[in-house]
Design brief:
This protein is α/β, with parallel strands linked by helices and 304 residues long. Helices cover 23% and strands 30% of the residues. It has two domains: 2-110 and 237-302, FAD/NAD(P)-binding domain (3-Layer(bba) Sandwich); 113-233, 3-Layer(bba) Sandwich (FAD/NAD(P)-binding domain). Helix 1 packs parallel to helix 6. The two termini are 15 Å apart. Bound molecules: NADP nicotinamide-adenine-dinucleotide phosphate. NADP nicotinamide-adenine-dinucleotide phosphate is lined by residues 46, 112, 114, 146-152, 154, 171-172, 176, 200, 234-237, 281.
Protein backbone atom coordinates (compact mmCIF):
# COMPACT_ATOMS: atom_id res chain seq x y z
CA UNK A 1 0.00 0.00 0.00
CA UNK A 2 1.42 3.37 -1.06
CA UNK A 3 0.54 6.54 0.77
CA UNK A 4 0.32 8.50 -2.50
CA UNK A 5 0.19 7.46 -6.11
CA UNK A 6 0.58 10.17 -8.72
CA UNK A 7 -0.59 9.25 -12.20
CA UNK A 8 1.13 11.20 -14.98
CA UNK A 9 4.46 12.21 -16.40
CA UNK A 10 4.29 15.93 -17.04
CA UNK A 11 5.04 19.09 -15.11
CA UNK A 12 1.96 18.64 -12.85
CA UNK A 13 2.96 15.07 -11.89
CA UNK A 14 6.58 16.05 -11.19
CA UNK A 15 5.51 19.05 -9.10
CA UNK A 16 3.08 16.94 -7.04
CA UNK A 17 5.94 14.44 -6.64
CA UNK A 18 8.33 17.13 -5.33
CA UNK A 19 5.84 18.31 -2.72
CA UNK A 20 4.70 14.87 -1.54
CA UNK A 21 8.27 13.54 -1.49
CA UNK A 22 9.44 16.52 0.58
CA UNK A 23 6.56 15.75 2.96
CA UNK A 24 8.04 12.24 3.39
CA UNK A 25 5.06 10.56 1.74
CA UNK A 26 7.30 8.49 -0.60
CA UNK A 27 5.13 9.06 -3.68
CA UNK A 28 4.97 6.50 -6.44
CA UNK A 29 4.61 8.11 -9.87
CA UNK A 30 3.08 6.01 -12.64
CA UNK A 31 4.05 7.64 -15.94
CA UNK A 32 2.89 6.46 -19.35
CA UNK A 33 5.63 6.04 -21.98
CA UNK A 34 4.11 8.75 -24.24
CA UNK A 35 5.96 12.07 -23.92
CA UNK A 36 4.30 14.85 -21.92
CA UNK A 37 3.41 18.08 -23.72
CA UNK A 38 6.42 20.09 -22.53
CA UNK A 39 8.71 17.39 -23.89
CA UNK A 40 7.38 18.10 -27.36
CA UNK A 41 7.64 21.87 -27.00
CA UNK A 42 10.60 24.00 -27.93
CA UNK A 43 11.42 27.09 -25.91
CA UNK A 44 9.17 28.09 -23.00
CA UNK A 45 9.41 31.84 -22.56
CA UNK A 46 6.90 32.36 -19.78
CA UNK A 47 8.29 30.15 -17.02
CA UNK A 48 9.14 32.59 -14.20
CA UNK A 49 12.80 32.95 -13.34
CA UNK A 50 14.07 32.10 -16.81
CA UNK A 51 14.79 35.43 -18.55
CA UNK A 52 16.31 33.63 -21.55
CA UNK A 53 13.53 31.02 -21.69
CA UNK A 54 13.97 27.32 -21.02
CA UNK A 55 13.60 24.33 -23.34
CA UNK A 56 10.39 22.39 -22.61
CA UNK A 57 12.13 18.98 -22.34
CA UNK A 58 14.71 20.44 -19.95
CA UNK A 59 12.05 21.99 -17.75
CA UNK A 60 10.12 18.74 -17.40
CA UNK A 61 13.24 16.55 -16.97
CA UNK A 62 14.79 18.85 -14.36
CA UNK A 63 11.52 18.94 -12.39
CA UNK A 64 11.44 15.12 -12.45
CA UNK A 65 15.07 14.96 -11.28
CA UNK A 66 14.19 17.31 -8.43
CA UNK A 67 11.33 15.00 -7.37
CA UNK A 68 13.63 11.96 -7.55
CA UNK A 69 16.21 13.78 -5.44
CA UNK A 70 13.63 13.95 -2.64
CA UNK A 71 12.77 10.25 -2.99
CA UNK A 72 9.89 10.07 -5.47
CA UNK A 73 9.83 6.68 -7.24
CA UNK A 74 8.92 6.53 -10.91
CA UNK A 75 7.54 3.54 -12.81
CA UNK A 76 7.04 3.65 -16.57
CA UNK A 77 3.53 2.22 -16.81
CA UNK A 78 0.30 3.38 -18.41
CA UNK A 79 -2.66 3.45 -16.04
CA UNK A 80 -5.38 1.32 -17.62
CA UNK A 81 -7.94 1.20 -14.83
CA UNK A 82 -8.86 2.95 -11.62
CA UNK A 83 -10.98 1.35 -8.90
CA UNK A 84 -12.29 2.60 -5.58
CA UNK A 85 -11.73 0.07 -2.77
CA UNK A 86 -13.00 0.32 0.82
CA UNK A 87 -10.25 2.52 2.25
CA UNK A 88 -7.98 2.92 -0.71
CA UNK A 89 -7.71 3.08 -4.48
CA UNK A 90 -6.44 0.50 -6.95
CA UNK A 91 -4.75 1.31 -10.23
CA UNK A 92 -3.83 -1.25 -12.84
CA UNK A 93 -0.97 0.04 -14.92
CA UNK A 94 0.65 -1.95 -17.73
CA UNK A 95 -0.83 -5.13 -16.26
CA UNK A 96 0.31 -4.62 -12.64
CA UNK A 97 -1.82 -3.67 -9.63
CA UNK A 98 -0.91 -0.71 -7.43
CA UNK A 99 -2.80 0.48 -4.33
CA UNK A 100 -2.70 3.80 -2.50
CA UNK A 101 -4.45 5.69 0.28
CA UNK A 102 -4.63 8.78 -1.87
CA UNK A 103 -4.25 9.49 -5.58
CA UNK A 104 -3.23 12.63 -7.46
CA UNK A 105 -4.30 12.52 -11.09
CA UNK A 106 -2.08 14.44 -13.50
CA UNK A 107 -2.80 12.51 -16.70
CA UNK A 108 -2.69 15.58 -18.95
CA UNK A 109 -4.24 15.74 -22.39
CA UNK A 110 -3.53 14.21 -25.79
CA UNK A 111 -3.45 15.91 -29.16
CA UNK A 112 -6.80 16.08 -30.92
CA UNK A 113 -7.01 14.47 -34.34
CA UNK A 114 -9.00 15.60 -37.37
CA UNK A 115 -10.86 12.35 -37.96
CA UNK A 116 -10.84 12.75 -41.76
CA UNK A 117 -10.18 10.15 -44.47
CA UNK A 118 -6.63 8.75 -44.65
CA UNK A 119 -5.48 10.50 -41.47
CA UNK A 120 -5.03 7.13 -39.71
CA UNK A 121 -3.17 5.64 -42.67
CA UNK A 122 -0.61 8.46 -42.71
CA UNK A 123 -0.42 8.95 -38.95
CA UNK A 124 3.25 9.39 -37.95
CA UNK A 125 4.07 8.89 -41.64
CA UNK A 126 3.62 12.46 -42.81
CA UNK A 127 0.82 13.49 -40.45
CA UNK A 128 1.92 14.38 -36.94
CA UNK A 129 1.52 16.75 -34.02
CA UNK A 130 5.09 17.63 -33.12
CA UNK A 131 7.01 19.95 -35.42
CA UNK A 132 9.56 20.45 -32.65
CA UNK A 133 10.38 16.74 -32.99
CA UNK A 134 9.97 16.27 -36.76
CA UNK A 135 10.80 19.62 -38.41
CA UNK A 136 14.35 18.57 -39.45
CA UNK A 137 12.80 15.87 -41.69
CA UNK A 138 11.22 18.63 -43.77
CA UNK A 139 14.33 20.49 -44.86
CA UNK A 140 13.49 22.36 -48.11
CA UNK A 141 10.08 20.67 -48.22
CA UNK A 142 6.54 21.99 -48.19
CA UNK A 143 4.45 21.58 -45.05
CA UNK A 144 0.99 22.36 -43.78
CA UNK A 145 0.06 23.39 -40.24
CA UNK A 146 -3.57 23.15 -39.14
CA UNK A 147 -4.87 25.29 -36.26
CA UNK A 148 -5.12 28.83 -34.99
CA UNK A 149 -3.84 28.66 -31.41
CA UNK A 150 -0.42 29.17 -29.84
CA UNK A 151 0.59 25.61 -30.72
CA UNK A 152 -0.08 26.23 -34.42
CA UNK A 153 2.11 29.35 -34.26
CA UNK A 154 4.81 27.37 -32.46
CA UNK A 155 4.68 24.55 -35.02
CA UNK A 156 4.95 27.13 -37.82
CA UNK A 157 7.99 28.75 -36.21
CA UNK A 158 9.68 25.38 -35.65
CA UNK A 159 9.08 24.38 -39.29
CA UNK A 160 10.23 27.75 -40.63
CA UNK A 161 13.82 26.84 -39.73
CA UNK A 162 13.75 23.91 -42.17
CA UNK A 163 10.82 23.91 -44.60
CA UNK A 164 10.92 25.96 -47.77
CA UNK A 165 7.17 26.71 -47.56
CA UNK A 166 4.51 26.45 -44.87
CA UNK A 167 0.76 26.76 -45.35
CA UNK A 168 -0.95 27.69 -42.10
CA UNK A 169 -4.60 26.69 -42.41
CA UNK A 170 -7.20 27.84 -39.90
CA UNK A 171 -10.95 27.26 -39.80
CA UNK A 172 -11.87 30.86 -38.89
CA UNK A 173 -10.85 34.30 -40.13
CA UNK A 174 -8.94 35.15 -36.97
CA UNK A 175 -6.44 33.32 -34.83
CA UNK A 176 -6.97 32.56 -31.15
CA UNK A 177 -3.21 32.57 -30.53
CA UNK A 178 -1.69 35.27 -28.31
CA UNK A 179 -0.67 38.52 -30.01
CA UNK A 180 2.98 37.82 -29.17
CA UNK A 181 2.93 34.48 -31.02
CA UNK A 182 1.00 35.96 -33.96
CA UNK A 183 3.54 38.78 -34.20
CA UNK A 184 6.35 36.23 -34.35
CA UNK A 185 4.90 34.40 -37.35
CA UNK A 186 4.11 37.69 -39.11
CA UNK A 187 7.86 38.34 -39.16
CA UNK A 188 8.47 35.23 -41.31
CA UNK A 189 9.38 35.93 -44.97
CA UNK A 190 6.27 36.29 -47.17
CA UNK A 191 7.42 33.58 -49.60
CA UNK A 192 7.89 31.11 -46.72
CA UNK A 193 4.51 31.38 -45.02
CA UNK A 194 1.08 31.43 -46.64
CA UNK A 195 -1.91 31.82 -44.33
CA UNK A 196 -5.17 30.27 -45.47
CA UNK A 197 -8.19 31.33 -43.40
CA UNK A 198 -11.75 29.99 -43.27
CA UNK A 199 -10.77 26.53 -44.50
CA UNK A 200 -11.17 23.11 -42.89
CA UNK A 201 -9.32 19.95 -43.91
CA UNK A 202 -11.48 17.26 -45.51
CA UNK A 203 -9.02 14.63 -46.72
CA UNK A 204 -5.33 13.77 -46.61
CA UNK A 205 -3.93 13.02 -50.07
CA UNK A 206 -1.13 10.64 -50.84
CA UNK A 207 0.17 7.50 -52.40
CA UNK A 208 3.00 5.84 -50.50
CA UNK A 209 3.55 9.07 -48.62
CA UNK A 210 1.63 12.28 -48.05
CA UNK A 211 1.35 14.39 -51.21
CA UNK A 212 -1.18 16.96 -50.10
CA UNK A 213 -4.36 17.91 -48.31
CA UNK A 214 -7.86 18.65 -49.55
CA UNK A 215 -9.51 21.55 -47.77
CA UNK A 216 -12.89 23.26 -48.01
CA UNK A 217 -13.89 26.90 -47.55
CA UNK A 218 -16.34 27.06 -44.64
CA UNK A 219 -18.23 30.00 -46.16
CA UNK A 220 -18.46 28.97 -49.82
CA UNK A 221 -17.97 25.18 -49.53
CA UNK A 222 -15.41 25.54 -52.34
CA UNK A 223 -12.82 22.74 -52.12
CA UNK A 224 -9.11 23.27 -52.78
CA UNK A 225 -6.04 21.03 -52.88
CA UNK A 226 -2.66 21.96 -51.45
CA UNK A 227 0.42 19.94 -52.36
CA UNK A 228 2.71 19.22 -49.44
CA UNK A 229 5.10 16.68 -47.97
CA UNK A 230 3.95 16.81 -44.36
CA UNK A 231 0.99 17.90 -42.26
CA UNK A 232 1.18 19.08 -38.65
CA UNK A 233 -1.95 19.20 -36.52
CA UNK A 234 -2.19 21.76 -33.74
CA UNK A 235 -5.91 21.65 -33.06
CA UNK A 236 -5.97 21.38 -29.30
CA UNK A 237 -6.05 18.54 -26.85
CA UNK A 238 -8.45 16.06 -25.26
CA UNK A 239 -8.08 15.31 -21.52
CA UNK A 240 -6.81 11.82 -20.70
CA UNK A 241 -9.58 10.92 -18.29
CA UNK A 242 -11.29 7.85 -19.80
CA UNK A 243 -10.38 5.53 -16.93
CA UNK A 244 -11.98 7.88 -14.38
CA UNK A 245 -15.34 8.23 -16.19
CA UNK A 246 -17.22 5.82 -13.94
CA UNK A 247 -15.75 6.96 -10.61
CA UNK A 248 -15.23 10.74 -10.84
CA UNK A 249 -17.36 13.66 -11.95
CA UNK A 250 -16.17 14.96 -15.33
CA UNK A 251 -17.49 17.95 -17.26
CA UNK A 252 -19.08 17.68 -20.73
CA UNK A 253 -15.68 17.83 -22.43
CA UNK A 254 -14.19 15.15 -20.18
CA UNK A 255 -12.18 17.36 -17.81
CA UNK A 256 -12.11 16.20 -14.18
CA UNK A 257 -14.17 18.55 -12.03
CA UNK A 258 -12.21 19.86 -9.04
CA UNK A 259 -12.87 22.51 -6.40
CA UNK A 260 -10.50 25.29 -5.34
CA UNK A 261 -8.54 22.80 -3.24
CA UNK A 262 -7.90 20.49 -6.23
CA UNK A 263 -10.27 17.92 -4.68
CA UNK A 264 -12.24 15.77 -7.12
CA UNK A 265 -15.73 14.41 -6.44
CA UNK A 266 -14.12 11.49 -4.61
CA UNK A 267 -12.64 11.95 -1.14
CA UNK A 268 -8.91 11.24 -1.20
CA UNK A 269 -8.51 11.82 -4.95
CA UNK A 270 -7.05 15.06 -6.29
CA UNK A 271 -6.38 16.26 -9.83
CA UNK A 272 -4.13 18.86 -11.44
CA UNK A 273 -3.02 20.04 -14.86
CA UNK A 274 -4.50 19.57 -18.30
CA UNK A 275 -6.77 16.69 -17.20
CA UNK A 276 -8.77 19.17 -15.08
CA UNK A 277 -8.00 22.59 -16.55
CA UNK A 278 -9.99 23.53 -19.63
CA UNK A 279 -9.25 27.25 -19.28
CA UNK A 280 -5.61 28.19 -18.67
CA UNK A 281 -3.62 25.14 -19.85
CA UNK A 282 -0.27 26.68 -18.91
CA UNK A 283 2.77 24.89 -17.50
CA UNK A 284 2.83 27.30 -14.57
CA UNK A 285 -0.86 26.82 -13.69
CA UNK A 286 -0.48 23.03 -13.95
CA UNK A 287 2.45 23.15 -11.56
CA UNK A 288 0.60 25.53 -9.22
CA UNK A 289 -2.51 23.38 -9.01
CA UNK A 290 -0.35 20.26 -8.58
CA UNK A 291 1.29 21.93 -5.59
CA UNK A 292 -2.18 22.54 -4.12
CA UNK A 293 -3.20 18.94 -4.81
CA UNK A 294 -0.07 17.63 -3.07
CA UNK A 295 -0.62 19.85 -0.01
CA UNK A 296 -4.24 18.73 0.20
CA UNK A 297 -3.25 15.06 -0.18
CA UNK A 298 -0.85 15.51 2.71
CA UNK A 299 -3.61 17.10 4.81
CA UNK A 300 -6.01 14.31 3.89
CA UNK A 301 -3.52 11.65 5.00
CA UNK A 302 -2.87 13.48 8.28
CA UNK A 303 -6.62 13.54 8.90
CA UNK A 304 -6.90 9.77 8.48
P1 LIG B 1 -6.07 25.79 -28.58
O1 LIG B 1 -5.73 27.12 -28.01
O2 LIG B 1 -7.27 25.05 -28.08
O3 LIG B 1 -6.22 25.99 -30.17
C1 LIG B 1 -6.67 24.95 -30.99
C2 LIG B 1 -6.89 25.52 -32.38
O4 LIG B 1 -7.29 24.47 -33.25
C3 LIG B 1 -7.98 26.59 -32.41
O5 LIG B 1 -7.57 27.64 -33.22
C4 LIG B 1 -9.16 25.85 -33.01
O6 LIG B 1 -9.98 26.66 -33.78
C5 LIG B 1 -8.50 24.81 -33.90
N1 LIG B 1 -9.29 23.58 -34.03
C6 LIG B 1 -9.84 22.83 -33.05
N2 LIG B 1 -10.46 21.74 -33.57
C7 LIG B 1 -10.31 21.83 -34.91
C8 LIG B 1 -10.71 21.01 -35.99
N3 LIG B 1 -11.40 19.89 -35.81
N4 LIG B 1 -10.38 21.39 -37.24
C9 LIG B 1 -9.67 22.53 -37.46
N5 LIG B 1 -9.23 23.34 -36.47
C10 LIG B 1 -9.55 23.00 -35.22
O7 LIG B 1 -4.88 24.75 -28.43
P2 LIG B 1 -3.28 25.01 -28.41
O8 LIG B 1 -2.88 25.92 -29.50
O9 LIG B 1 -2.69 23.64 -28.35
O10 LIG B 1 -3.03 25.73 -27.02
C11 LIG B 1 -3.45 25.11 -25.79
C12 LIG B 1 -2.97 25.96 -24.62
O11 LIG B 1 -1.55 25.90 -24.51
C13 LIG B 1 -3.35 27.44 -24.77
O12 LIG B 1 -3.72 27.94 -23.52
C14 LIG B 1 -2.06 28.08 -25.24
O13 LIG B 1 -1.96 29.43 -24.84
C15 LIG B 1 -1.00 27.21 -24.57
N6 LIG B 1 0.25 27.21 -25.37
C16 LIG B 1 1.11 28.24 -25.17
C17 LIG B 1 2.29 28.30 -25.92
C18 LIG B 1 3.25 29.43 -25.72
O14 LIG B 1 2.91 30.39 -25.04
N7 LIG B 1 4.45 29.35 -26.26
C19 LIG B 1 2.56 27.32 -26.88
C20 LIG B 1 1.65 26.30 -27.08
C21 LIG B 1 0.47 26.27 -26.32
P3 LIG B 1 -10.90 27.81 -33.12
O15 LIG B 1 -9.96 28.92 -32.78
O16 LIG B 1 -11.86 28.14 -34.19
O17 LIG B 1 -11.54 27.19 -31.92
Amino acid sequence: MNKVIIIGGGIAAHTAAIYTARASLQPLVLSAPEPDQLSTTNIVENWPGTPDGILGPKLTQDTKKQAQKFGAKYILAKADSFKVLKNSFEIIASGKKYAASTVIICTGASSRKLDIPREKEFWAKGVSTCATCDAPFYKNKTTVVIGGGDSAMEETLALSKFAKKIYLIHRRDEFRASKLMQDKIKKLPKDKLEIILDFIPIQILGDKSVTGIKIKNVKTNQPKEISCDGIFLAIGHIPNTDIFKSSLKLDKKGFIITNKKSETSLLGVFAAGDCQDSLFKQAITSAGVACQAALMAEKYLEGR
